[in-house]
Structure formats: structure tokens, C-alpha cells
Specification:
The protein is about 30% helix and about 25% strand. By secondary structure, it is of the alpha+beta class. A hairpin with a 7-residue loop joins strand 11 (about 370-380) and strand 12. Keywords: Cell adhesion.
């Protein structure tokens, strides 16, 4: 027998608060434990002392002071570091969470608050029937947006009721293994590839899924309109610093929701974080395609991303087209001819964005003899103290370089200048209405970026040279199998921009039920009268009126991808050795140093040239090494450096994906590349 003094010296009292719904029972319990008692034993003792008959399988211990879960039930209290002053909570691991989707719909569902965010997002996407969950993550609302919402709620006399889609009965969200439902790619097609509605052969599957046929349509089809009032209430970033605030809210994928201060029934944004939309297929991805479209649409309407007036009209026309399609569902259902399906699949091939380093194409498909371009182009160089100089030269494009000569006859000799485009920024300067086809090249040099602009004569010449420049900036030549699809993509985008005024089409804009203010950013409604906007949108609508519903969405996404700022996330940083702040743009294939005042790019570094990167967690500094002995280091001022570190590692991870692989993800590799060693 152990004496009472010996017992007291080796054991101690541990206070545990139990999160249960029985109001008449006490929530705090004192357990007498020893340091060698394992976590599972603590939970067993606690349940025996509570004496409530219920299912405790989803419960686990949460350590409030350390902000961590005690999930390793075989670990002892000593090994975990738990002592008598610890405050433990015995609570459920799965809790309710409200998620605002890209289409601005809010869903309420049960999510694991103890799993790392990467796993939680994977489970959420399974419920919502979104493939490739590695492209998405959870985002906290910017503080400015929260303040704006609070002011709006205070000013409104009527209580604000949010339309919430409740999916809390999902078997997956309850912590159980749900049926594959609409998620499985190995089964027959789950969506009509033309209309985006659930295929008739799969409607019976909805009985096992939280997504009923009606709920699926809510997620897979677009909202009818967006009122200017809703748009005015949204957070609209005006400067690069404002855009940096948006990017600062990403949750850490290698930590749980509770560890990051997220509470039950909080609201988060579910967004596409990585702009590499892999293996898009309208037969399986109606929800995914629609949510990508909606994210692109709202980014343009809130002016998160800039576009020209001509591009804005194309985006507005495609949106207006959706409205007319949705208002006549019978037309959607009837348009299922095979030729249209083939057109959609052909459009999809142009949408895949693949990083360098991945298995991008079969080597046998590439041309062994590298082709070249040779043509008369106009060279435009900006001058600091005078107007731009514009001269006609004979240009030759070969490998990843552009050389120019005085004329065609002198092309056998030495060029006037040879420009290496590897790692450069390529910016389109196009206005189809005025027949302006320009390619602005920002070429990295020792003291910044050298700006050169090429002027083409027509659309076909522009498409060939633009595609060659885009590939060369990535270190690829025109022999690459992606060259011709790139040319086709550019031409199709130009074709959408190239409309002619048809008196019949725009004679009476009021006869068509269209609110132009719903399809354009607010600044355009201030610049033009609504009748003018309606007429111009209808002009642009002529080139997209024959598209199927899914194809129109894909074309919208494709046009979004063509914008110079597509896929850029911004962070305010200070580079090592610099006294002033700069903006770092993180894209799917490169990092860009941007002047915070002017917004001009200073230097570009490609991921394909990256040798290694690491983080000094003590001083929170990111250091990156590139080829040719180039190295950079910076500290993040607008967000935790872990967010930037995860962005870089995430894009490297996504570049390893291949269609030859199965649907399973190498989660360990993701955490190795993004987790860090804090």
C-alpha cells in the first residue's frame, strides 16, 4: 500500500473544462493524475467522472495556454509538458464553420478544427464536389472589410439576414467516411459538359451526398446579377498596399483552425489560392469551373485586377450572356449536340497552366529543328527627356532571343542589338478598335528593367510574336508543343475583342432586360451613361452569343488569365540592403520586385531558375538562391513570412502534378515544401 504522503507527492490535480450541452451538469472537473499517465488515460478518467452516456469519440483535449491539441493519446503528460497549471478543454474536434464561396454564397458545414488546414480544405472540397482541392485554401477577411461590414450593419435599420446553404448533415463533415457521391472521377460523367447541370444518369447519387440536385445547381450555376449596392459594399483595393492586405489573410496550411484562433461558427473565405487550374474537365468540374469563373468575375468587378476598357466590355458581354442563358433554361438543356461538346474540350486544352519543371509535354511531340520568326516590326524605346522613338527594323526571333537589324539584307551580319528574353516580363499593349498591337518587354538588367516595345502590323503577326515572347520568358522555344495552342489562344481572345457595330444589335438597348451597372466596375458607371454602356456591351456580345454556357465561362477564365496582373499576390517587403519598402509579387511561375510608388516592375526571378530557398525563423527573413550566383533576401512587413514561404513551396509542389498520376496527393511532400521548421 502507498501512504497518503507518498501519493500526494507523485500526483497532482488537473483542471479540465468539458464542452457539453447539459446545462444542469458542472463543466469543470478536477482529475488526480500523475506525470506518467498518457493522454488517452486522462480522457478515460474524465469520461468516467462525467457520467454522461453519449458518444465521446469526436472529443479531444485542447490546451488553451499553448494553443495546441493533445491528439497523440499514447504520449504521457510529462512528454506533452502538461503540469498542474495547465488549462485543458475537452471539446469536439468537428465544429460548425461558415464559408463564403467565390460566388458569394455562404455555406455552413462541419469542419475538423483539429486537422491541419490542408486536410480540412480537402474534406470541404469533397463535400462541395470540387476536384483538385490543393488549389484552394482558407482566407480571413481583411480588417478594412470587417470594419465596413460593421458600419453597414449599424446603419441598416432592418436586421441583416444572410442567405446560408446549410450542409451540416454531410457524412464527410461529421467526421465519417462519406460516399464518393459526385466526387469520383472514375465513374460516368457527373455533369453535362455543355450546360454544367448534373447529368441525368447521376442524379440518383445525390441521395448519399449533402449536395442535393438543387444545392448542386446553386454551386454550379452563376448568380443572376450583382447590384451596384452590393459592389459598393465590397472591399475594393485601390493601391498595391490595399492588395497586400488581401493576401495577408491566408491561413497556415500546416496548422489547425483552432491553433490559428478560428472559433466555432466563424466566417472564412474559401478561395483559389494557387492560380494553376490543372486538368479542368466540364464532365466532372461544373462546380469548380463556376467557382473559378466567379472568383475571376468578382476580382474584375472589385478592381482587384486591372483591365483595359476594351477587355472590360468583353468581360461584361460574357457575364450578360450568362444572364440571358440562365433566364432561358430550356435553351440550355437542348443544346447538347456533340460538336459543341468537342468545342468545349478544345477550349479546355488552352486553359491548363503548367509550371516549368512539371511533365508538361511529351518530348517526342516537340520539333527537333527549332523554328524562327523573321519580320519587319517597329521598335519603340521610351526616352527620359524626349518623346518615344519609333523605327522600323528587321527582327529575327530564335531560341529565346530577339535580334534586330537595319533591314532584311543585313540580317546575315551582326545585329544592332540582341535581347535575351529569358526571365523578362511580357505585357500586351493591344487596342483592337484602333488596330494597335504592341508587345511591351521588360528585360532584367543589372540596375533594374530595360523597357522595349515591339509594334506589330496585324493580329496574326502579333499572335505569333506574342506567343514566342511568352514562351521565351519562361525559358521555352517555339519548338515547344505549347507554342501553337498559345498562338490559337491569343487569336481567339483578339477575335472576341474585334467587334463591329451592328445597327440591328444595338438599335434599342432598352428592349433587352439588362442592367449594365451589374457587369462593370463602379468607375465605368461614373464615366459613361448607362445607355452608352448597354449599347457597347451589346456590341461586344455579338462575338460571344453563339457560345455554350460552359464555354462562355471557360472563355471568361481564359481572358482573365490573359491579363498582365493575373495570378499575382502582393506583399510589402524590405529587401536586404535596402532602406525603402518594396512590393513583392508572387505568381505561379515567378517572383517580381515592384516599386511601391509607381507600380513598375524592377526585377523578375523565375521559379525555374531557383536552386533553393530557406527561412531564418529568428529574424523572419526569406532567402532565395537562383542560377548564375543570384541570391536575394527579404523580410515581410505586411504578412507573416510563413505565408510567402508557403506560397513558393506550394507552387513548386503543384508543378509536380501529372495527369499520369492517380487522384491521391503526396501530402507529406506538400508539408516538406511549405511547412518550415519554426
Amino acid at each position: 500500500m502507498i501512504s497518503s504522503s507518498e501519493y500526494g507527492s507523485h500526483s497532482w490535480e488537473l483542471l479540465v473544462t468539458v464542452d457539453h450541452q447539459h446545462k444542469e451538469l458542472n463543466k469543470e472537473f478536477l482529475l488526480r493524475v500523475t506525470g506518467d499517465l498518457h493522454i488517452g488515460g486522462v480522457m478515460l478518467k474524465l469520461v468516467e467522472q462525467i457520467k454522461i452516456s453519449q458518444d465521446w469519440s469526436d472529443y479531444a483535449l485542447w490546451w488553451e495556454q499553448k494553443k495546441c491539441w493533445l491528439l497523440k493519446t499514447h504520449w504521457t503528460l510529462d512528454k506533452c509538458g502538461v503540469q498542474a497549471d495547465a488549462k485543458l478543454f475537452f471539446t469536439t474536434q468537428h465544429k460548425m464553420l461558415r464559408l463564403r464561396l467565390p460566388n458569394m454564397k455562404t455555406v455552413r458545414l462541419k469542419v475538423s478544427f483539429s486537422s491541419v488546414v490542408f486536410k480540412a480544405v480537402r474534406d470541404i472540397c469533397k463535400i462541395l464536389n470540387i476536384r483538385r482541392p490543393e488549389e484552394l485554401s482558407l482566407l480571413k477577411l481583411p480588417e478594412d472589410a470587417l470594419k465596413k461590414k460593421k458600419r453597414r450593419d449599424k446603419s441598416s435599420k432592418e436586421p441583416v439576414t444572410e442567405d446560408v446553404l446549410d450542409l451540416c448533415d454531410s457524412p464527410v463533415s461529421s467526421g465519417l467516411s462519406g460516399s464518393p457521391g459526385l466526387y469520383s472521377k472514375t465513374m460516368t460523367p457527373t455533369y453535362d459538359p455543355v450546360s454544367g447541370t448534373p447529368a441525368s444518369s447521376t442524379i440518383t447519387w445525390f441521395s448519399d451526398s449533402p449536395l442535393t440536385e438543387q444545392n448542386c445547381s446553386i454551386l454550379a450555376l452563376s448568380n443572376l446579377n450583382c447590384s451596384p449596392e452590393i459592389l459598393a459594399e465590397m472591399y475594393q483595393p485601390r493601391t498595391l498596399a490595399d492588395k497586400a492586405k488581401l493576401s495577408a489573410g491566408w491561413l497556415d496550411s500546416s496548422r489547425s483552425l483552432m491553433e490559428q484562433g478560428i472559433l466555432e461558427d466563424d466566417q472564412l473565405l474559401l478561395r483559389f489560392k494557387y492560380y494553376t487550374f490543372f486538368d479542368l474537365n466540364p464532365k466532372y468540374d461544373a462546380v469548380r469551373i463556376n467557382q473559378i469563373y466567379e472568383q475571376a468575375r468578382w476580382a474584375i468587378l472589385s478592381e482587384e485586377i486591372d483591365c483595359t476598357e476594351e477587355e472590360m466590355l468583353i468581360f461584361a458581354a460574357l457575364q450578360a450572356y450568362h444572364i440571358s442563358k440562365l433566364s432561358s433554361s430550356s435553351e440550355v438543356q437542348d443544346s447538347t449536340c456533340e460538336s459543341e461538346v468537342d468545342e468545349v474540350e478544345a477550349a479546355l486544352s488552352n486553359l491548363e497552366v503548367t509550371l516549368e519543371g512539371g511533365n508538361t509535354s511529351n518530348i517526342l511531340e516537340d520539333i527537333t529543328d527549332i523554328p524562327k520568326l523573321a519580320d519587319n516590326l517597329r521598335l519603340v524605346r521610351p526616352r527620359k527627356l524626349s518623346l518615344r522613338t519609333i523605327k522600323l527594323y528587321w527582327f529575327v526571333f530564335k531560341d529565346t532571343s530577339v535580334s534586330y537589324f537595319k533591314n532584311k539584307e543585313s540580317a546575315q551580319g551582326e545585329p544592332i542589338e540582341k535581347l535575351n528574353l529569358k526571365g523578362c516580363e511580357v505585357v500586351p499593349e493591344v487596342n483592337v478598335a484602333t488596330q494597335k498591337f504592341g508587345i511591351k518587354l521588360l528585360i532584367p538588367v543589372a540596375d533594374g528593367m530595360n523597357e522595349v516595345c515591339l509594334r506589330c502590323e496585324n493580329e496574326n503577326q502579333y499572335a505569333r510574336w506574342m506567343a514566342a515572347c511568352v514562351l521565351a520568358s519562361k525559358g521555352k522555344t517555339m519548338a515547344d508543343s505549347s507554342y501553337h495552342p498559345e498562338v490559337h489562344k491569343i487569336l481567339s481572345f483578339l477575335k472576341m475583342k474585334n467587334w463591329t457595330t451592328s445597327p440591328q444589335a444595338v438599335s434599342d438597348p432598352e428592349s433587352i432586360d439588362m442592367k449594365p451597372e451589374c457587369f462593370v466596375p463602379l468607375r465605368y458607371t461614373k464615366r459613361f451613361k448607362l445607355k452608352q454602356l448597354a449599347a457597347r456591351i451589346l456590341e461586344a456580345h455579338q462575338n460571344v452569343s453563339q457560345m455554350t454556357l460552359v464555354e462562355a465561362k471557360l472563355r471568361f477564365i481564359q481572358a482573365w488569365q490573359s491579363l498582365p496582373e493575373f495570378g499575382l499576390s502582393y506583399y510589402i517587403v524590405r529587401f536586404k540592403g535596402s532602406k525603402k519598402e518594396d512590393v513583392l509579387g508572387v505568381s505561379y511561375n515567378r517572383l517580381i520586385r515592384i516599386d511601391i510608388v509607381t507600380g513598375d516592375p524592377i526585377t523578375t526571378w523565375r521559379f525555374s531558375n531557383m536552386k533553393q530557398w530557406n527561412v531564418n525563423w529568428e529574424i523572419r527573413q526569406v532567402a532565395i538562391e537562383f542560377d548564375q550566383n543570384v541570391s536575394i533576401a527579404f523580410t515581410s512587413l505586411s504578412a507573416d513570412c510563413k505565408i510567402i514561404h508557403e506560397y513558393i513551396g506550394g507552387y513548386i509542389f503543384l508543378s509536380t502534378r501529372s495527369k499520369d498520376q492517380n487522384e491521391t496527393l503526396d501530402e507529406d511532400l506538400f508539408h516538406k515544401l511549405t511547412g518550415g521548421q519554426e
